[in-house]
């Protein structure tokens, strides 16, 4: 569910007319719904009710400071993967002591920074990383809390570029090597064994892979609890969202009309499948979801430049581009694209919806049906709250888009559009070229 809906002919985010946002702040602009974020956070809590649960928002999905502060206020910790993300948590007023540090390439400087700020745990991806963490902790005279990430060799049934739990992925330690890795960790005096971790991929739409992975790791978790006194089991994230028909999916009537076997995976179904497997362990359970938390909580607003009619093909050219939203170019991802002003009297148009960048890959949708829209009119790319702004670039010397947060009838600019002066501020022409 989400809080984007039409009020009469006009698309709103919660109680805010999105056309008013575009008029005030221009386009391209990302708009986020605080209400949707809170709903998704609470649904995860309720879906696994009865467990000792800590949600660590996977901030790589969307690391805007306002988004982080909102989740911190709700009680979330954070799943972070760089020193920069750790600094963002601090800048947003988040709690590092309930946050975990993941990623295969943590530097000594990043490890030191995390230890100095009391990180809840490092999720260790390899034996060399374990040795590095121990070394840095020794220099600081502390013990570093860790959980080893175990790769369960489970096919997540998702896009090849976002699967992380197969044996040929770069993440984690194979299950067959787990016991030896923990034995090695136990011999390091500057390491505190605190938990075990897994994460099998992103945008999962079935409960089966989650269940298979937890069943594989749960016996190990029980053994580690006995042997080393671990206190938590992190089952990662990966809960998928609805991209196609995403606007309709925000409405309960759409959901209820689907047969049970065709409904998208929900936090409730996810929790029903996993809670019986996790409860007997008696361990704190960490969740590290990102896309589910923010994906359908955001849209990207764009303005139509013009319609180009080609030989047997129409091209609807808009002012957003692959530098603003790279997912379609990178993953062939689907985003629903809708007009901000809906007019049933207009004809349907079939067109490739493209941006102005000089790349054939700058295409958001091919042969997409959309209401006929003219120059200067506004459209919205739905489900753009995750892996949108955070993956954006300045390609073609295009400044970064603006970001706006909505709560109820209130909205505020939370990241101003980048100016040309800001874009080149750190560049210079060397003296030998003067």
What's this, in brief?
This protein is α/β, with parallel strands linked by helices. The chain is built from 14 helices and 21 strands.
Protein model, in words:
The protein is α/β, with parallel strands linked by helices and 434 residues long. It folds into 2 domains: 34-292, Alanine racemase (TIM Barrel), CATH 3.20.20.10; 296-423, Lyase, Ornithine Decarboxylase, Chain A, domain 1, CATH 2.40.37. The chain is 30% helix and 25% strand. The chain contains 14 helices and 21 strands. It has helices spanning 18-25, 34-47, 65-74, 83-91, 108-116, 127-140, 178-186, 208-228, 246-249, 252-257, 267-278, 291-294, 327-331, 420-423, and strands spanning 4-7, 10-13, 16-17, 29-33, 53-58, 77-80, 100-101, 121-124, 144-151, 173-174, 191-197, 232-234, 284-287, 298-309, 314-318, 337-339, 348-354, 363-371, 378-381, 402-407, 410-415. Strands 4, 14, 15, 16, 17, 18, 19, 20 and 21 form a 9-stranded mixed β-sheet that branches. Strands 5-6-7-8-9-11-12-13 form an 8-stranded parallel beta barrel, surrounded by 5 helices. A hairpin with an 8-residue loop joins strand 17 and strand 18. The radius of gyration is 23 Å and the shape is globular.
Question: Helical proportion?
Answer: 25-40%
The CATH topology of the largest domain is what? TIM Barrel
What is the radius of gyration computed over CA atoms, rounded to a whole number of angstroms?
Answer: 23 Å
| Average of pLDDT | 93
- How far is the N terminus from the C terminus? 58 Å
Oligomer: single chain
> Under the CATH scheme, which architecture of the largest domain would be assigned?
Alpha-Beta Barrel
**Structural class, from secondary structure content?**
alpha/beta
- Superfamily (CATH H level) name of the largest domain: Alanine racemase
Low-confidence runs of at least 5 consecutive residues: 158-167
